Amino acid sequence: MNASTIELAATEALLAFWRDAGVDACYADAPIDRTHIAPPPAAKAVARATATVTPLPLSGAGLNDSVSEARRLATAADSLEALAKAVADFEGCPLRGMGARQSVFGRGDPAAPVLVIGEGPGAEEDERGEPFVGKAGRLLDRMLAAAGLEGKVFITNTVFWQPPGNRTPSPAEQAVCAPFVERTFALMQPRAVLLLGGAASKSVLQSDEGIMRLRGQWREWRLAEGNVSAPVMPTLHPAFLLRQPQTKKQAWADLLALAVRLEQAD
């Protein structure tokens, strides 16, 4: 007896459903516990990478020792190239042992008049070894170019290793990397600084205010040593602009204010 077209279609649909649900056999030689859900390959890779890693305690003496070592390495660097190598050699930030492929220091012109500081590298940045090269970075580049700032920036982050799951870096992790960020500022002595997002703004400005209060308001960043200072413009992170396109107008106004300030300083 031949099955009808409708029955065949229903059977094919049911088999397709089972296939998509993960059914790969009608029977087996031994029972298998299907209730155990294995972690995805990415999670396994992270687990293997971190299985033997004991993160350095980021509090008390451990934090102070790491900051001191970072400051020693940063102070010894006399160029951004040397500073990038010092970052790569630094072992005091636990993020480097949480699955990151490599350190991600910076890109752009070391003699640029504008220092741009973001939060931390993501997956594409971790793979390529440069900050802001993913979708958010491409948006940032387009906005900088439209504001007349193309080729006039050096871009870095508050931390130099990708946080697991692209989470926001902790204040302690930022504190450990801060000597390198400050040394970048001291070596460049830029005419202005652009801070991208709340995490970067709070870290650099040592502020508890949210980015919606900070953005669009000129602040000052002054180092305790070296008599280095510059005006700072906090703005929204490009990744946030991708999620909330209606806020691009605010970020655009911030970039134009930065461009005008540079022109007036010429």
From TrEMBL:
Gene3D superfamilies: Uracil-DNA glycosylase-like domain. It catalyses: Hydrolyzes single-stranded DNA or mismatched double-stranded DNA and polynucleotides, releasing free uracil. Pfam families: UDG. NCBIfam families: UDG_fam4. InterPro entries: UDG_Type-4/5 (IPR051536), Ura-DNA_glyco_family4 (IPR005273), Uracil-DNA_glycosylase-like (IPR005122), Uracil-DNA_glycosylase-like_sf (IPR036895). The keyword Cytoplasm does not apply. Coiled coil: none annotated. SMART domains: UDG (SM00986), UreE_C (SM00987). The keyword DNA repair applies. Keywords: 4Fe-4S, DNA damage, DNA repair, Hydrolase, Iron, Iron-sulfur, Metal-binding. It is an enzyme of class 3 (hydrolase). Belongs to the uracil-DNA glycosylase (UDG) superfamily. Type 4 (UDGa) family. Residues 105-256 form the Uracil-DNA glycosylase-like domain. It comes from Brevundimonas vitisensis. This is Type-4 uracil-DNA glycosylase. PANTHER family: TYPE-4 URACIL-DNA GLYCOSYLASE (PTHR33693:SF1), TYPE-5 URACIL-DNA GLYCOSYLASE (PTHR33693). Its EC number is 3.2.2.27.
